[in-house]
Amino acid sequence: MLEGQALLDRARALSDRPEDQIARACGYVGPSGRVLKKSFYRALVAAKGYHLPTSPSGRGSGGGKGRQAEFRTRVHGNGNLLIGQAYTRRLGLEPGQEFRIEIHRDTGSIWLLPLEN
């Protein structure tokens, strides 16, 4: 990710392009390929000489915590139901863990029961 004068120069050179393209060209892309707009804008502000306060978590002053689990999901067109990383991380689940799925029709609940090794 570019910073300082290098960031300003690159952004200025690409100023006729959409914001997402500029951010990508400056290296502000997360591991999933998502453009990190907030980080990009904060870096631009810092490169201009303005220092924004950061929160105790180090994530900025917006009061937000990045993407949060909404506790909502929907069935995709292919019939899959996704439980996102925010939930698995919150539960401390590890890649490769296996579960038994239990359906409780009377309550409309789906339970994931960890399988023992």
Q: How is this structure best described in words?
A:
The chain is α+β, with helices and mostly antiparallel strands. Helix content is 29%, strand content 10%. It has four helices and two strands. The protein has a two-stranded antiparallel sheet. β1 and β2 form a beta hairpin. About 6% of the residues have low confidence.
Short description:
The protein is α+β, with helices and mostly antiparallel strands and 117 residues long. The protein has four helices and two strands. The protein has a two-stranded antiparallel ribbon.
Question: Helices, strands, pairings?
Answer:
Blueprint: H1 4-13, H2 19-25, H3 37-47, H4 85-90, E1 99-104, E2 109-114
Antiparallel strand pairs: 1-2
Could you name the CATH class of the largest domain? Mainly Beta
Q: How many E strands? A: 2
Number of helices: 4
Q: Strand order across the biggest sheet? A: 1-2
Rg over C-alpha atoms, rounded to the nearest angstrom: 21 Å
Q: Please give the share of residues in helix.
A: 25-40%
Strand proportion, as a percent range, falls in 5-15%
How many structural units, i.e. domains? 2
Terminal-residue CA separation: 42 Å
CATH architecture of the largest domain: Ribbon
Query: SSE order in H/E notation?
Result: HHHHEE
The unreliable regions are: 57-63
Mean pLDDT: 83
Estimate the global geometry from the Cα principal axes.
Answer: elongated
CATH topology (level 3) name of the largest domain: Pemi-like Protein 1, Chain: D
